């Protein structure tokens, strides 16, 4: 309907012209001369391309030619599995490619090599993990094996099976010989037997003097 028609036509008290259309070009049922409503659908609820609100035509196929189940008019799915009629299957239920209606072969695997549970014949899923969550190398998604150690031999806390971290210290901070990062054992003495002040267990430094500056001979004389 043109602009001129809007202002030149006569409308009755209900707002419709002689042809039964209102000023916007729709009849009492809400359809224009082409048979479509304001939303673009006809009485059968199809648009001008022939598709309904869900995107399917009167035969049940979308614009790509597939129905609601994902198959085209020849019975082929997106994966190319032919399942339109039982003629395509042998008496055991398998097609020429060896797959049944669900897409699995006699061994229970689909064309990608996975069974209904998502595992291949080696027991691994598409991400490479088995049912216990470990990959072919024996590590889980976090990189730890069944014993809890990563490929470098350390657990989540950073210690190896002997209880030492990558720097060679245990959870208390001592190495295999019993010394900490400062070189002292749990009693506070280094490998030469001196504490952090430089005195041995008897209280003498490497020059033989105690903290008062006296050696053993001087103490005996005292």
What does this structure look like?
This protein has 222 residues and is mostly loops. It has a domain at 167-222. Helices cover 5% and strands 0% of the residues. The chain is built from two helices and no strands. The longest helix is centred in the N-terminal third of the chain and has 6 residues, at 3-8. It is elongated, with a radius of gyration of 43 Å. It starts with a helix and ends with a helix. Residues 80-87 have low confidence and may be disordered.
What are the key terms here?
222 residues, 5% helix, 2 helices, little secondary structure, single chain
Give a short summary of the structure.
This protein is mostly loops and 222 residues long. It is 5% helix and 0% strand.
